[in-house]
User: Fold these one by one.
Assistant:
Number 1:
Amino acid sequence: ETGVTQTPRHLVMGMTNKKSLKCEQHLGHNAMYWYKQSAKKPLELMFVYSLEERVENNSVPSRFSPECPNSSHLFLHLHTLQPEDSALYLCASSQRLAGDINEQFFGPGTRLTVL
Amino acid sequence: RKEVEQDPGPFNVPEGATVAFNCTYSNSASQSFFWYRQDCRKEPKLLMSVYSSGNEDGRFTAQLNRASQYISLLIRDSKLSDSATYLCVVRVMDSNYQLIWGAGTKLIIKP
């Protein structure tokens, strides 16, 4: 299934590195999301974009910087991360932001390890 | 108190058995309810929405109890392929795009 793709699938970085996560959706959806999933914890919503505009920033530290150049692509730029930022980062998209039908389709995730 | 609470399990169940688990939510303004399934090292996928009157999809039955603020998932005639983590998800009325996720219940079906 290639509805939502993410690269890279695995990333190991030092605390002083700068890296970017990429997400692409091929579903023609208008809304895209970044989530963080840590072991045994609920998914944490980080950012929400609707029609390329950011509509939600859930008190995410500034070391995470999202970018949405168009409705199909979403990036998460990382710099000076901390070891506790190690987690699975999931990208998702939905047809639209609101409404009764709001199924979110997820990418396979990027497993990030910060040393 | 967690907004969406689930028993983490794991539930170890023999193949062919019936298993049920619940999820409780704290916000009475919760509007929509879902069960997602997440296989090991995979992404979450929608299993089914939960409607007020309860709904069934093959071997899976979901029910909602608004008075007690919980939803349930029943799996009949469980298969080995049902082994996964089941995530309870709620959408709150005053935040029509933000989904609130439970941490999941792990289910292991044994032959």
Note: The longest strand of chain B covers residues 30-38.
Number 2:
Amino acid sequence: DAGITQSPRHKVTETGTPVTLRCHQTENHRYMYWYRQDPGHGLRLIHYSYGVKDTDKGEVSDGYSVSRSKTEDFLLTLESATSSQTSVYFCAISEGMGQSSNQPQHFGDGTRLSIL
Amino acid sequence: DQQVKQNSPSLSVQEGRISILNCDYTNSMFDYFLWYKKYPAEGPTFLISISSIKDKNEDGRFTVFLNKSAKHLSLHIVPSQPGDSAVYFCAATFSGTYKYIFGTGTRLKVLA
């Protein structure tokens, strides 16, 4: 299994509070991703990173920010959490070698976030 | 705009029979397709993939078929086993982007 650790695994917080989720990898992969999974929507990309300090938005980036100061860590921050951000959040990594995207992503086990 | 669609939210199959999961896409630039399996409380696990230069790829009980003209791919599981009961996601990407678009998933239940 790919060495991906997400923390915390579960979190309950209140509307308006800041929340940071952490993804840590031991594979030295270049690309890291944050997704959210919601019923009826599958997995939707929030942000991704293609290197240290290099990040870009995904399809549902509003209300989220990310940072990557080291290859192994990718942080997702909800500056002021809202109930619509209640979801299961998954981190993923991919090797990102060369121009071809023909490489699978590997996922962490997720963080279940509830915002009351 | 859902670029990758899985139109069947659920599927039930008897143990030992074939399971066929379907996926349609709209973006003709996609050139790499993947299937993932997801158990409850776990992250998705990569299952099998196919490049657009092929129309079939096999790995044990799992075969993925790609029909580029119809923009359709399918995953065949033969024979189906109770342990295959999970949610299956298809995903697609194209060279140079490293961004993957996922379908909404199909819940497969294999009945013993």
Note: The CA atoms of residues 38 and 51 of chain A lie 27 Å apart.
